[in-house]
Automatic annotation (TrEMBL):
Domain Bacteriophage phiJL001 Gp84 C-terminal, first and last residues per copy: 196-277
Originating species: Ascidiaceihabitans donghaensis
Pfam (any one): Phage_phiJL001_Gp84_N
Protein name from the UniProt record: Bacteriophage phiJL001 Gp84 C-terminal domain-containing protein
InterPro entries hit by this protein: Phage_phiJL001_Gp84 (IPR011928), Phage_phiJL001_Gp84_C (IPR018964)
Top-rank taxon: Bacteria
């Protein structure tokens, strides 16, 4: 790495340079795209950087300290590069972006200028515009635990530690009846309690929407028909015969953690935390002020 940097600096120091910019976008599903403003395709790091995509970027705004670095990238929408339906489906949300200054005569001589993620992405008139956010963007997020009665963990994450791949906590289904990419219905669903998947998630396993998911708002059983309703529609076409996976839901209460998941040891809430009314309560012997546990 140091030899590559020294070679790049030596090339820049000559005053007669053969430099171009290259960008690599890595989506959260692992798909990679390479772009360059050079007039020919380049390749390094196992990625092809394509020249015919029309991608360009404004000047990188970089700084020391904790301020946020940012820039914007512009490019053409093409089936071979960035497609409008992929943007609409949200496949580029949070994608990692890396940008280099590259000696196109010797691609081993390059300098990374920017590393971050895609923020807001817009498209119009056959082109897209992506806001690029630097690594310090993550410092804008509030960190630390929140003291509240419900659990603060996400079911199955590193703090919850529950294994959702256990039998009984997921089911794979073939789509049969779908309404507006948001409501799914089945007549032969299986032996799951009513509302078992409420507050869970639906993952699309196959078809044009493969890799996308939605949060489950309602899980109802009426007249032998199981209806799963999402909070928002899946932003890509879903057809009958596509496969989906339903994951069990959690309402974040201590009783649910104990009785449904047997995972109370990892409960991340404070069920006995007194509410605001406790501050105004007067001592009395007939009804002890216990804090009103939501067990």
């Amino acid at each position: 790495m140091s030899d590559r940097r020294e070679a790049f600096l030596a090339h820049v120091g000559t005053g007669l340079t053969t430099l171009c910019r290259c960008w690599r976008i890595t989506r959260t599903d692992g798909v990679k795209y390479g772009f360059t403003d050079h007039d020919q395709n380049l390749r390094f790091g196992g990625v092809d950087f394509r020249a015919e995509t029309g991608l360009s970027a404004s000047a990188l705004a970089t700084s020391t300290g904790l301020s946020v670095d940012n820039t914007e990238a512009l490019g053409a929408l093409t089936d071979a590069a960035v497609r409008e339906d992929d943007i609409e489906a949200g496949r580029f949300d949070g994608a990692e972006v890396r940008s280099w200054l590259v000696n196109w005569a010797d691609v081993d001589q390059r300098w990374m200028q920017f590393r971050g993620t895609i923020g807001e992405m817009r498209r119009a008139g056959g082109a897209f515009q992506a806001e690029l956010r630097g690594l310090t963007e993550a410092l804008n997020r509030p960190l630390g635990r929140v003291y509240q009665k419900p659990c603060t963990a996400v079911l199955g994450d590193g703090t919850c530690r529950f294994d959702l791949s256990q039998p009984g906590f997921f089911t794979d289904k073939t789509v049969s009846d779908i309404e507006g990419n948001r409501i799914f219905r089945w007549t032969d669903f299986g032996a799951f309690d009513d509302a078992w998947f409420q507050r869970g998630r639906l993952n699309v396993q196959s078809g044009a929407a493969a890799g996308l998911w939605g949060a489950i708002k309602h899980d109802r059983l009426q007249d032998g028909i199981r209806e799963i309703e999402l909070w928002q529609p899946i932003r890509a076409p879903i057809l009958p015969t596509d496969e989906v996976r339903l994951l069990a839901g959690c309402d974040k209460l201590l009783s649910t953690c104990s009785e449904k998941f047997s995972n109370i040891i990892n409960f991340q809430g404070f069920p006995d935390l007194p509410g605001e009314d406790w501050l105004l309560s007067q001592p009395k012997s007939s009804n002890p002020n216990t804090g009103g546990s939501r067990r």
